[in-house]
Design brief:
The chain is mostly beta strands. It has strands spanning 3-7, 10-12, 18-25, 34-39, 45-51, 57-59, 67-72, 77-82, 91-97, 108-112. β5 (45-51) and β6 (57-59) form a beta hairpin. The N and C termini lie far apart (40 Å). The model has no long low-confidence stretch (mean pLDDT 97).
């Protein structure tokens, strides 16, 4: 069973940056198209970014140009570089397979506040 452990969240001010990590275990990471999702307080989970095994990426309109997804297959790790953070980016961030998602990990809290 594939498992996901997200890390790297924290409290930052608007305009600052964070880099999230997601360690994937129990599967063949290098063949997965992976995705980042987030869930803000009182809202449903929303898609943020996708990265394919060939490192093609796509982003939601709300983060395009500010967030960058990357992966290190040798480490079975997914990354999300988040720049120019806004208050509305505050959420719990999760990673999962883009196709046939597995059980969700604990997520990592990102809070953007002045």
């Amino acid at each position: 069973q594939v498992q996901f452990v997200e890390s790297g969240g924290g409290l930052v001010q608007p305009g600052e940056s964070l880099r999230l990590s997601c360690l994937v275990s129990g599967g063949i990471f290098r063949i997965y198209t992976m995705a980042w999702y987030r869930q803000a307080p009182g809202k449903g989970r929303e898609w943020v970014a996708t990265i394919t095994p060939s490192e093609d990426t796509s982003y939601s309109a709300s983060v395009k140009g500010r967030f960058t997804a990357s992966r290190e297959d040798a480490e079975s790790t997914l990354y999300l570089q988040m720049n120019s953070l806004k208050v509305e980016d505050t959420a719990v961030y999760y990673c999962n397979k883009a196709n046939k998602p597995g059980d969700w990990g604990p997520g990592t809290q990102v809070t953007v506040s002045s």
